[in-house]
Amino acid sequence: MSAFRDAGHLFRxxxxxxxxxxxxxxxRSFLVPxxxxxxxxxxxxxxxxxxxxxxxxxGHETCETCHADVLEKKKDGKxxxxxxxxxxxxxAKHADDPSSVTPAKLDTAVLCVRCHEANAAKPKSFPQVVSxxxxxxxxxxxxxxxxxxxxxxxxxx
Amino acid sequence: xxLTRRHLLLLLPAAGAAWKYVLAGTPEIAPNYKLTEHWWSxxxxxxKCIGCGNCVRACQTENDVPDGYFRTWVERYHVTDYDIxxxxxxxxxxxxxxxxxxxxxxxxxxxxxxxxxxxxxxxCTQVCPVGATFISPDGAVLIDKTYCLGCRYCVQACxxxxxxxxxxxxxxxxxxxxxxxxxxxLTTACCENCPTGARQLADLxxxxxxxxxxLKTHSVQVLKPYMATHAxxxxxxxxxxxx
Amino acid sequence: xxxxxxxxxxxxxxxQWSVLxxxxxxxxxxxxxxxxxxxxxxxxxVEAVKPTYRLALLTALSFLLIAPLPxxxxxxxxxxxxxxxxxxxxxxxxxxxGFVYLWYLMAVLVLExxxxxxxxxxxxxxxxxxxxxxxxxxxxxxxxxxxxxALHIDERAGWLITVIGIPSAFLLHGYVGFIFGSxxxxxxxxxxLMPVVFIFSAMVSGIAAVMLLYMFxxxxxxxxxxxxxxxxxxxxLFYTFIIDFGLEMLDLIHRIYESDESFRSxxxxxxxxxxxxxxxxxxFLGTVTPILLLGATQVLTLTESAxxxxxxxxxxxxxxxxxxxxxxxxxxxxxxxxxxxxxxxYKMGLVTREGLLTAVVLTFLPLVILWVLVKLLPPWxxxxxxxxxxxxxxx
Lengths: 157, 243, 395
Hints:
The structure holds three protein chains of three kinds. Chain A has three domains: 45 residues, no CATH class; 50 residues, no CATH class; 53 residues, no CATH class. Helix content of chain A is 48%, strand content 0%. Chain A is elongated, with a radius of gyration of 33 Å. Chain A starts with a helix and ends with a helix. Chain B has a single domain, classed as 2-Layer Sandwich (Alpha-Beta Plaits), CATH 3.30.70.20. Chain B has seven helices and eleven strands. Chain B is globular. In chain C, helix 1 packs antiparallel against helix 7. Chain C has a two-stranded antiparallel ribbon. Chain C contains 15 helices and two strands. Chain C has a single domain, classed as Formate dehydrogenase/DMSO reductase fold, CATH 1.20.1630. The chains are: A mainly alpha, B alpha+beta, C mainly alpha. Chains A and B meet through helix 3 of A and helix 2, strand 2, strand 4, strand 5 and helix 5 of B.
């Protein structure tokens, strides 16, 4: 007991520390977001917030619900698995309200070379041409129909 | 302790209020979407990639990615013969506008699209000091941008260089596997827009997903396997020179 | 791309951590080093360094108070930084460091200073007037007991705090080293030696800083520099330097010998982009030269004024060298691509939030704090020599 006789200041100090810890714990209970820890060490509501982002590309299945005729043309050709928006761009707004957004007419001279311009790094089996030599400056859709690009034997003549 | 009627009269309303509180905090991700039914990954078939850059552009459009930063990008490799230790690599603006003709057509040339690998054991989520980045129960590594401090520790910790700090929000950002699309039954923007099917979203928990058959019949690799991050983006035909 | 050589992953081109993150380990290193010097006297009874004891503690506190500032200025959202205390991620070294910092500040440094100064604080709370009186009264926590027994309890408690404080100081700066050393993605950082190298370089910088401060402040107060003290401090600086240099050489030799996939890229970087900061400033000017200078004072018999000059020069070179070491670790670790195929450049702003001016201000701000602390709690030996001193009452 005599050891504690002159230690009053240390007890006061301990009291200050204890008060600080208590204050911290109280503040913490207010400030930690309520959904924190729901699935792991993060704010559970973040999942729904991230999932709620608006979509810009409708996805080919959505296009096909209205444009079944194009799907018909595409399905047996080489572009069967090239999705609509890969060329036509993001059209979720058009799919939601077709009359509000009219998709732009595409310029084949710019669009087609993106994939089909010859490049040493492209797989050898992939159809590629040196566009300057291939068509004498004519736009690609002079001979190729993009939705089914193969040229029939008669048309090639 | 004997539960008297008085105890119940106090406990039940309290429990009811608490339950409502819990329910209020449970977000609905999307109708009919159950987190535990999915384990997302991606398959990239390098034998099919043509370096068109469609994926990079589509990602930027879908996710509003600022110029100069990349949630996904394409690299072009040139390897002369046997010297796989010294490839020449370029990625002009991340491959966003495609690639110019190769200077040297000899040797081996190919494209490698890259993105966040959504690692099952990710070093980036390990180092986040506050829990702003995490792996969702369905396998997507995501960032809570309202909680992120912008300390950049996760950017340093990623071995693949897929993270960046968005200058508009001053928070960390990266590929989200188009979480807002895949939870609605759509595929990612990059996979939707890939003309050759080189990129394909895969759900490892779905027994009908074609990736299971593919993994059984092809030699696949992940990037930097020695980092033991358990990356979930699988590459078919990944050359030894790829960094 | 301007500033880029070879190939870098597109998101790697811009550096993530700036000069402020270089400054941060430098400041916390000074804290740890100053504290270790103080503990030499308190725990290991190296009586000769007693004149620097209180000054070392105040120096540590000044730098520790400023240390979070570069971090706050660097964050994208400093207003969210409290989240590290609310929801710390236990796997994150950075989050856990928040608590190590808090522990060290409150449970070690502030406590030790308070216990050592308590008698003076009580005396000053009774002898001063006005605002200063209020400050001292607040610091007494309402207790004015300075009986011999109370002071003896303070002495024993202070000793205990210092004993806990030594591993705490190692933890403080070792943790900073671990924050870098645990990043497997970065081969320049990832090594188990990193915390150890950081601790020893911290000790070197802290001892040098206190030595310089003591010499400068004593001279500016027109008092006599206690050469026995300074000679001893310099000797400890010399020993610590040998260990620090040895550790850095071990890391270097190990890298060169193993020559793993990262080595060629890192080696090239050190010889080109980091040539001046690493080879010239850190190794030659900042390590080898001070070691030779201090070594000379150990083997040769030199006059007092020659020794003072050498200590001054060696001390300054040491601080520059240790800063360069932090620079080479932090900035160097971000200059090379993780593909090992390219390099980028650090574009340091001058008057931006994370620029040079901010770094300079933050380096000198602790000295301002120290000036305030020295006025409030004078650390000078004359205060505690003689019959009226703390020592006479406590022992």
